[in-house]
Each structure stands twice: as structure tokens, then as C-alpha cells.
Amino acid sequence: MEEDQDFLLFIKKVKEHTSIDLALYKEAQMKRRLTTLRMKRGYQTFVSFFDAMMKNKELFYEFLDRMTINVSEFWRNPNRWELVESRFIPEMLKKNRRLKVWSAACSTGEEPYTLAMILAEQGALNDVHLLATDIDEGALDKARKAAYLDRSLRDVPEKYVKKYFWQDQLMYYVSDELKKTVKFQKQNLLVDTFDTGFDLIVCRNVIIYFTEEAKHVLYQKFAKALKPGGLLFVGSTEQIFSPGQYDLEPADTFFYRKKGV
Question: CB-based contacts of 131: which residues, under 8 Å, 6+ apart?
Fold first, then answer.
């Protein structure tokens, strides 16, 4: 019982000091991951762990990293990205060259840079507003540096590796051409308001960690942020049941189009 109270107090303190509401995440998964981190760092209780986090920025970033599961790679699930490249982006560009694209919960940047490569190949990169957001400042710093181990590039087509990266020993660096076009900023999806008028929103492999209530709120916010006819691209375990309640309709597997066109 005391252990439960300790974790509930931790959730309360985190929300008070950071606006991050851990109660909106699936508790069993979240508690297991954070317990592992707390014990690894040598803290007997969550309250003592919280106090240490508030004094130690590196520990706080590690907490954020564990909480948000920063597992990302370029062209994750390549057949889905091939659909973005061969079908959806060309369809959008025929209607409008000045697209507005958002990579939500972008982690360390692989996803927005994948989008940037696709847009560059179609000669549209400099016409597009490409936003990338995440709650984790540490992840955003890595995204801005744009340095990656080769394992992150394993699904990138070879021609793109040659064209959009340069290598220095073990690291691959994203070209300046792509880096300068992505605007990275901090954002809490569950709390912050969203911009509107997006042609494409990509939010993959994040929503799965939220409660059903939080998912519902998030899908409503995404739908409002899309322009009519805009697309929401979700992860391979995040199929939206009854998308019509959000004014969305299936466009393909894991792609949802906002109604109204």
C-alpha cells in the first residue's frame, strides 16, 4: 500500500512541476519502466527519485527518455513510407506546393528527416513548412545535432544514404540541406494547443502508451489540426476504431483522411 502511495505522490509532483500527467499513460507499463530506472539509479522510493530529478537535469532527461520510449529509426516500416512517397505526397503536391507537415512526438528526429528526404526528392522541400515536436528536450537536442549510428539507417534506400548523409567514423550526419528545413520545438501533446491547417500529421508508435481517454482527446485534437482532406499517419499498432467520430475516414492502412473535401 505504501508503495502505491509513493508512486501516486510521484505522479502528483511530476504534474505540479512539469505539467506532464503520468496518469494519462497506461499505469502498468509506465510504473514498470520507471521502477527499473529508479532502482538502477539507487533510489529507494519514487519521492526520493523525484527530489533527485529536480536537482539533476541529466536524471530528469533520463526519466523523460524512459517515459517517452525514444526508439526511432529512419523509414520505420518501409512499405508505409513508400506509400507516403509514391502516392500521398504526390497527390498533395498536385493540389498545393506549399504543404504544411507535422511530425508529432518526433523523438530524436529520424521521422521528420525521413519526411524531408521524401519532400526533397520531389523538389518540394523548400516550399514546405515542416514542423517536428517532442516533449523531451534531450531528444530534441539529438534531433538538431542529427548524428546517428548506422543501425538507424538500415531501412533507408541506398541512394538516399549517399545523397542526404555524410559519414564520419561510426556516425552518419544528416545533410545541412535537410537540417535547415525542419523546425524543432518542445511540445506536450496532451496539454498544449495545436496549430491548424496541416496537410499531413505523422504521429507513430506513441499513442499506444496512452490511456483510452487520452487517445480519444488526442485524436480529436489531431483531427481539428488537419485541414479538410488532410492525412493522419499512425503507427502499425495504432489502428483507429470508429474514425468517423473524429471526422476521419480510412485512406489506407494506418492512414486517415479528414472528411470535408
Answer: 100, 101, 102, 103, 182, 183, 185, 195
How many Cα atoms occupy the beta-carbon half-sphere of 75 within 13 Å? Answer: 17
Q: How are beta strands 198-203 and 171-174 bridged, if at all?
A: unpaired
3-state secondary structure of 174: strand
Q: In the beta sheet, which residues pair with residue 87?
A: none
Q: What is the CA radius of gyration of the chain?
A: 19
27-40 and 46-55 are packed helices; what angle lies between their axes, rounded to 10 degrees? 70
Dist CA 9 CA 118 (whole Å): 45
* Length in residues, the chain: 261
Q: Looking at the DSSP assignment, which residues form a beta bridge with residue 100?
A: 129
Q: What distances in angstroms separate CA 86 from CA 32, 62, 74, 81, 91, one per listed residue?
A: 41, 38, 17, 9, 9
Q: Are strands 165-168 and 147-149 parallel, antiparallel or unpaired?
A: unpaired
- Interior CA angle at 197 toward 68 and 82, to 5°? 60
Give residue for cell 526519466. Answer: 63
Q: Are 226 and 232 in contact (CB under 8 A)?
A: yes
pLDDT at 1: 46
Cell digits of residue 244 = 468517423
Nearest to 162 by CA among 153, 170, 54: 153
Handedness of CA 55, 187, 205, 165 (dihedral sign): negative
β-bridge partners, 186:
134
Contact criterion met (CB below 8 Å) for 46 and 9 = yes
pLDDT tens for each residue of 25-79: 778 888 888 999 999 999 999 999 999 998 887 888 788 777 765 556 899 888 9
